[in-house]
Amino acid sequence: MLGRITRWSLENRVVTLFAASLLLVSGVYVATTMPVDVFPDLTAPTVTVLTDAHGMAPEEVESLVTFPIETAVNGSAGVRRVRSSSAQGISIVWVEFDWGTDIYRARQIVGEKLQTVSGALPQGADPPVLAPIASVMGEILLIGMRSDRHDPREVREAADWTVRRRLLAIPGVAQVIPIGGAVRQYQIRVRPAALEAYDIGLDEVLTAAGEASGVASGGVYHEGGREVLSRAFGRAHEVGEIARTVVGLRGGAPVLLSDVATVEEGPGPRFGTASVDAEPAVVLSIQKQPEVNTLDLTGRILREIAEIETQLPEGMEIETGIFRQADFISGAIYNVEEALVVGAVLVVVILFLFLWNVRTTAISVLAIPLSLALAMLVLRLLGGTLNTMTLGGLAIAIGALVDDAIITVENTFRRLRERLRRPAEDRGPVVQTVYEAAREVLAPIVSATLIIAIVFV
């Protein structure tokens, strides 16, 4: 079959050259549009389940929250492993599926299983939620926010309500997680002596605090063929409005929340901190979705950050140089590309020194871009990415890429020289000579190439 392909290519040289040119252009286009990463994503399809369990110790979270969730998802179709981590007030369960499972189907399966366990969780535990889809190499950027004119609460608010929301709107960003700073809270500090003096129970204070801010429906009022929607608007906008909440009645007089407690703004409890250059700051971890070009996404994020920074309060700045995966990717790919170029140049020089013929060398060297272009197309069809492993493999394979071409071209060159030494009537067509020269080495070339492929496999 390979012999027939060789003869057909020689008889249809224009078509063959056109197909080779089309292959080269397609390979270059695919190479420039493929996702770029440091390493390939080698994790099985994983669904992450997060559950907030406010106020629970790790032991309670493990037994009352994590274990029921694990039990519910363990028997799902295609699940290969379930892992979990329980900490103070939070449960994380990782559900790994078989290789090749569609991630969206996996999330649907887990979501359906969680419906059966939500009602069995203890009071104080929120319903389980699925974390956004992200890869193991998904953390592509760490940025820091700091200011010498604003307190940590203001910096954290800008990170939560301005920067995070703007970044989540960028296509390809899976999650933005702020760390550090101080989270603003409305804190009610109960005075036990006042509770005793007014004969108010702590449960009454908790109920009043929970109902201090809200909107209630007042139904629909019909008049003149019209429907007018009414509502009771009781949303609190400041600390003073919360402090004026009625806790109960004593002797016909209302007892306000400010009578039995101190209501004020304050930072929430800290379970971690962050710093930039040894100074307190808010650090945001930006994670990408799978199969997204890291270099392209990083560029779009940095352009958005530059625009956001112009709209922040004066004195608040964003530091983007803490960690940037794109820098590692660019450096790694540059090193591999340099190895590819140096290897190709060495091949050209050595070919010319041994063959001592420009046309023969050029024909042999053509195998390098054509083979690389075909490799790019195969990688794209298999769902691969450009990374240090795939590019490193190509760099190693440069010698093997031109090996077959060198053997064929050198044998053809030798046979053509022998043809010129014969009398004109015995030479025969040039195409026939080229075909016979290629057929002579066809079997050894195929055998050698298969041996190399088997060794690498």
Describe the secondary-structure layout.
Layout: H1 2-11, H2 13-33, E1 46-52, H3 58-74, E2 79-87, E3 90-97, H4 103-117, E4 129-130, E5 139-147, H5 152-168, E6 173-180, E7 184-190, H6 192-198, H7 202-210, E8 214-223, E9 226-234, H8 239-243, E10 246-250, E11 253-256, H9 257-260, E12 261-267, E13 275-276, E14 279-280, E15 282-288, H10 294-309, E16 316-324, H11 325-355, H12 358-365, H13 367-381, H14 388-396, H15 398-421, H16 430-456
Antiparallel strand pairs: 1-3, 1-4, 2-3, 5-15, 5-16, 6-15, 7-12, 8-9, 10-11, 13-14
Helix pairs in contact: 1-16, 2-13, 3-4, 5-10, 11-12, 11-14, 11-15, 12-15, 13-15, 15-16
Please give a quick description of this structure.
The chain has 16 helices and 16 strands. It has 457 residues and is an alpha+beta fold. The protein has a 4-stranded antiparallel sheet. It has a 4-stranded antiparallel sheet with strand order 6-15-5-16.
- Portion of residues in beta strands equals 15-25%
Per DSSP, the total helix count is 16
Radius of gyration: 35 Å
Characterize the biggest β-sheet. Answer: 4 strands, antiparallel
Mean pLDDT, nearest integer?
A: 86
State the helical fraction. 40-55%
Strand order of the largest sheet: 2-3-1-4
Unreliable stretches: none
Instruction: Please count the beta strands (DSSP E, at least 2 residues each).
Output: 16
Quaternary structure classification: single chain
> Roughly how many Å apart are the termini?
25 Å
From the spread of the alpha carbons, the general shape counts as elongated
Which structural category fits the helices and strands?
alpha+beta
